[in-house]
Design brief:
Blueprint lengths: L1 H15 L1 H6 L23 E5 L2 E4 H17 L4 H31 L6 H14 L4 H11 L3 H21 L8 H9 L2 H4 L2 E11 L7 H19 L4 H8 L9 E6 L5 H7 L11 E3 L2 E13 L4 H30 L3 E3 L2
Helix pairs in contact: 1-6, 3-4, 4-7, 5-7, 8-13
């Protein structure tokens, strides 16, 4: 049951982010000087921003940022990296809430509406796409502390904002066959022959806030592990016995396109073949050794095979550009003021 909750909670976060993804607005760009401090710890709520005749409250902000903060904290980054990521996400979430207030004001002005059947249909499509039953969805909602009424309210807001985007942006976008062909020809790395890498890892993490001596001890352990691997010890066995992450899975990471990997890992794997492993890598996660378990080669995609995917990519790119331009123009006609 716990594993199902983890899966369904991620799906709910996906639903919560549907509007963000539709508008293609990235999260995490700037720094905000904390909304919480000892001085304000006793406050239950306060105003963070005025948006024309509306306000963004601390309560709204905390509610919106909660899933993102939980996700970041679950990744196990070093304290300083985590602090920077949280600071960035806080600023961008506030920006998003301001944008949503502006969008909601336009929705009201245009008299856009959603009926219950549209909400039902959207939820049913989501359940079908993600193979969720009514019980599975309800379990996930309970686990997240979200009532059915609150969930339906969120869906309604997303549908309304999608209708706004359709009216103000999507209906004006046309993607031509010439644009599709040009994109295809300019992205051979995406549609040409491709190699995918099935990887395993052994990872050891110095304790948070570790001194140099503790880091050196972890490094020494990894050097011993590397030596054992070079003497022929099976990577899966060493990962199961010594890795501090994914030990039960024997270090399995999955199958990746080369471009999906970090630059440091790309450099370490470049030129290596199946069965070979890297030297010790120092990463944000800790000390890491990565094995290429298998290289899967796929043939090039024909233009006819890639056409629908390219059209959607160009369409989403245009949505992002045109929505941002529309929103920027809307802001020039609005009164937006943050409260420090």
């Amino acid at each position: 049951m716990k594993k199902r909750f983890v899966k369904t909670k991620r799906l709910l976060l996906k639903v919560h982010r549907t509007f963000l993804m539709t508008l293609a607005i990235p999260l995490g760009v700037c720094l905000v000087s904390g909304f919480w401090s000892p001085l304000h710890a006793e406050l239950v709520d306060r105003i963070l921003a005025f948006v024309n005749d509306d306000i963004v409250t601390l309560y709204e902000f905390n509610k919106a940022i909660k899933p993102y903060e939980a996700r970041i904290r679950s990744l196990g980054y070093p304290t300083e990296n985590e602090r920077k990521m949280l600071s960035k996400i806080r600023e961008d979430v506030l920006n998003q809430l301001i944008d949503e207030k502006l969008a909601d004001q336009e929705i009201k002005q245009l008299n856009l509406s959603v009926d219950e059947k549209e909400i039902d249909s959207t939820i049913e499509r989501f359940k079908a796409t993600n193979t969720l039953t009514d019980e599975g969805l309800k379990d996930a909602l309970d686990e997240e502390g979200i009532s059915v009424d609150e969930y339906r309210k969120r869906i309604k807001e997303q549908i309304l904002r999608a209708k706004l985007v359709n009216r103000q942006v999507k209906s004006k976008i046309v993607i031509t066959q010439e644009e599709i062909r040009a994109y295809y020809e300019s992205h051979p790395e995406r549609y040409g022959p491709k190699k995918r890498y099935r990887l395993r890892q052994i990872l050891m993490r110095p304790p948070t806030g570790a001194f140099e001596k503790e880091k050196a001890e972890k490094r020494k352990q990894m050097e011993w592990i590397l030596g054992e691997l070079k003497h022929g010890k099976p990577f899966a066995d060493m990962a199961r016995n010594f890795s501090e992450v994914l030990a039960e899975e024997e270090g399995k990471l999955g199958l990746f396109d080369f471009e999906e990997l970090s630059e440091k890992l790309q450099e370490a794997l470049r030129g290596k073949t199946a069965g070979e492993f890297t030297e010790i890598l120092e990463t944000d996660q800790g000390y890491q050794i990565v094995l290429i378990e298998e290289i899967v080669e796929t043939p090039a995609k024909k233009l006819s095979e890639a056409s629908a995917e390219i059209e959607e990519a160009l369409f989403q790119e245009q949505i992002k550009k045109q929505y941002e331009a529309w929103l920027s123009e809307l802001k020039t006609k609005s009164i937006v003021k943050r409260v420090d």
